[in-house]
Amino acid sequence: MIDDKQHWETVYETKAPDAVSWYQPHLEKSLQLIINADSNRAAQVIDVGGGEATLVDDLLATGYRNVSVLDISQRAIDVCKARLGEQSTSITWFTTDILKAALPQKFYDIWHDRAVFHFLTSEEQRRKYVSQVAQAVKAGGHVIVATFGPQGPEKCSGLSTMRYDADSLHEQFGIRFRLVESATELHNTPFGTTQQFLYCYCKLEN
After folding, report:
1. How far apart are CA 107 and CA 157, in angstroms?
2. What residues form DSSP beta bridges with 140?
3. CA distance from start to end of the chain
4. pLDDT for 1
5. How far is it, in rounded angstroms, from Cα 201 to Cα 178?
6. What is the pTM of this model?
7. Handedness of CA 53, 57, 58, 60 (dihedral sign)
8. What whole-number distance in Å separates Cα of residue 13 and Cα of residue 157?
9. Closest by Cα among 81, 76, 122, 82 to 99
10. Rounded to the nearest 10 degrees, how much is the dihedral formed by the CA atoms of 70, 187, 36, 120?
11. Hey, what domains does the chain have and what are their CATH numbers?
12. CA angle 117, 119, 125 (to 5 degrees)
């Protein structure tokens, strides 16, 4: 069985930040969904699987001041910290597997995940993930999850992936998560190919 942590440490140790298929200079769609969901710059935001992505930079630049970043790879976290410099001290960092993370309860206003959930290929993994979200997000909080869409790749970084449309992704989360908006996006990879992403934005009901 693949050790997930070792797998991702190897990915981030052997590839430059802009040499992975999911790389974008700026996650504009994610940032816009976060701003639209909750424009209060004091909102508690967690970026799950933030890795080396620049979303945290853009959240800080936009004025969000209570930001957490979670990733399974220490290497990815270290790269992100180095890029942010002194600003990194204002971020709460979690280096852990999201399925095992000890997160504060009913704490986050916004949960963001681009490209973690689609790597959860077993029902048990997905159930644990959804449980984490339900426990960590405040009632009325916002959940933004981006996965590969129906025409997305079946494998990524050597791992199998799941592909979703809006209905099948929402079904994974259940009726407590009210679907507000969904959209697909064609992501242009650094290698000249495209990947279809599906974004779902839900609100966690009481």
Report:
1. 32
2. none
3. 38
4. 36
5. 8
6. 0.90
7. positive
8. 13
9. 122
10. -40
11. 4-11+36-204 (3.40.50.150)
12. 70
- Amino acid at site 194: T
Amino acid sitting at position 87: Q
Tokens at residue 117, please? 């959930």
Can you give the pLDDT of all 206 residues of the chain as single tens digits?
Answer: 346 777 656 656 666 655 555 557 779 999 999 999 999 999 999 999 998 899 999 999 999 999 999 999 999 999 999 999 999 999 999 999 999 999 999 999 999 999 999 999 999 999 999 999 999 999 999 999 999 999 988 988 788 999 999 999 999 999 999 999 999 999 887 667 888 999 999 999 97
Q: What is the 3-state secondary structure (H, E, C) of the chain?
A: CCCHHHHHHHHHHHCCHHHCCCCCCCCHHHHHHHHHHCCCCCCEEEEECCCCCCHHHHHHHHCCCEEEEEECCHHHHHHHHHHHHHHHHHCEEEECCCCCCCCCCCCEEEEEEECCHHHCCCHHHHHHHHHHHHHHEEEEEEEEEEEECCCCCCEECCEECCCCCHHHHHHHHCCCEEEEEEEEEEEECCCCCEEEEEEEEEEECC
* Rounded Cα gap, residues 79 and 52, in angstroms: 6
Task: Give how far Cα 162 sits from Cα of 37, 103, 123, 154, 201, Å.
Answer: 26, 25, 11, 7, 18
